[in-house]
Design brief:
single chain, about 170 residues, mainly beta, 2 domains, 8-stranded antiparallel barrel, two-stranded antiparallel sheet, 12 strands, about 50% strand
Length: about 170
Amino acid sequence: MKPYILICVLALASCTGNGTKNSNDTIKSTNDQEYTSQATTLNTPAQNMEYCFIHTDGTNTQDTTAVHLVINANRVSGDMSWLPKEKDRRKGTLSGKLKGDKIRAVWRFVQEGMKDTLAVEFKLSAQELDQKPMNLNTATGREQVNTQADYSVIYKLDNCEKFKFK
């Protein structure tokens, strides 16, 4: 029901005002939740939805990364698992924000019994999820988002049944 309220509020807001409305203005709905209006295109992610994506790479595409996202207004939560065939796995949760079609999140994961975190950046469309690659910061010895790179790690929409996300 909430998406219909949002659409009505957005439609009414677009009909009033002084004509200088920014496409990223914040609007209060009747239940005081904030929503960010966005230009509607075919690639704009749907709000209040769950998505699941798979990326495979490595020799014979045997290494898998699975991402389960829950989008609620501009908040993103979910799970991410990196499952290489013969290496230590990373499994954990995602928490972040959606702005337009871009997601900035923190991945809290466990690897070899140790807890760690990494910042991650994604671009979400209706059919795929694209991620900025990681690079090694030689000064700290830690992985970090390569902010200069394009979104070049491509995940395909999937049902992720075999990964048993929540």
